[in-house]
Write a structure and sequence with these properties.
Sortase, Chain: A, eight-stranded mixed beta barrel, 2 helices, globular
Length: 204
C-alpha cells in the first residue's frame, strides 16, 4: 500500500483530484464558502470503530444531509498520472489502488462539482457538510460502513497535500474530494480542491 501511495505522489505532482473539472467547460463560478483550516472534530459521542470483516469493493455512497445517493466507480490514475474521475456527473469514483472504505487507512472518493452545462453534479453541495454529518458506503458484500464528518479543508490546486489525504491511518477514514474556488477559463480548472475528512463510526 505504501508503495502504491508513493507512486501516486510521484505521478500526480500537483495534487490528487487534479483532473476533477479539468476537461469541463464552464460558464460560471459557483458560490464558494470560506472554510477554516480545521472547522471541528467529530463529536465526542461519535465513537470510531474498526470493521469486523474485511471490506469489499464500494458500490454506492449515500450522504443524507445533501441528498446524495450515487454509484461508486472504481478508478486508478488517468493518462496524466492523476487520480481519475467518474465517467459522468451523477456517479462518484473510488481510488482502487488505495484503501477500501472501512479499512484502516484513508479511502478516497472523488466526484464532479458541476456538469459541462454548468448544472450541479453529485458533489455540488459537498461544502454544506458539517462535523457529525454521516456518509454511508455499501460494498459488494452487502456491508454498510457509516462515517461521521470530522472536518473540511480547502486547498489550492497546486499545493494539494496528497500525503495527508491518501495517508496511512490506524483509524478507518473516508476522504471525499471535489473542485472548489474560482474557475479559470484559460487553464480550464478550478483554483482549489475541497476535502471532507470523515471517520468510521458504524458497520452493518
Amino acid at each position: 500500500m505504501k508503495n502504491k501511495l508513493l507512486l501516486l505522489i510521484v505521478l500526480l505532482g500537483i495534487g490528487a483530484g487534479g483532473s476533477i473539472g479539468f476537461i469541463m467547460t464552464h460558464t460560471h463560478t459557483p458560490t464558494v464558502k470560506t472554510l477554516s483550516s480545521r472547522q471541528s472534530a467529530v463529536p465526542k459521542q461519535a465513537v470510531t470503530v474498526v470493521p469486523s470483516i474485511s471490506p469489499g469493493v464500494p458500490e454506492t455512497i449515500s450522504i443524507p444531509k445533501i441528498n446524495v445517493h450515487a454509484d461508486v466507480e472504481s478508478v486508478g490514475m488517468d493518462s496524466q498520472g492523476r487520480m481519475d474521475v467518474p465517467k459522468n456527473g451523477e456517479d462518484t469514483a473510488w481510488y482502487s489502488p488505495g484503501y477500501k472504505p472501512g479499512m484502516r487507512g484513508s479511502a478516497v472518493i472523488d466526484g464532479h462539482l458541476d456538469l459541462v452545462t454548468g448544472a450541479p453534479a453529485v458533489f455540488w453541495n459537498l461544502q454544506e457538510l458539517t462535523p457529525g454529518d454521516t456518509i454511508s458506503v455499501t460494498d459488494n458484500n452487502g456491508s454498510k460502513y457509516t462515517f461521521a464528518v470530522d472536518h473540511l479543508e480547502k486547498y489550492p490546486y497546486n499545493t494539494f497535500p496528497m500525503k495527508e489525504v491518501f495517508a496511512d491511518s490506524k483509524t478507518p477514514m473516508l476522504n471525499l474530494i471535489t473542485c472548489n474556488g474560482v474557475w479559470d477559463q484559460a487553464s480550464r480548472n478550478y483554483s482549489d480542491r475541497l476535502v471532507v475528512y470523515s471517520k468510521l463510526v458504524s458497520e452493518d
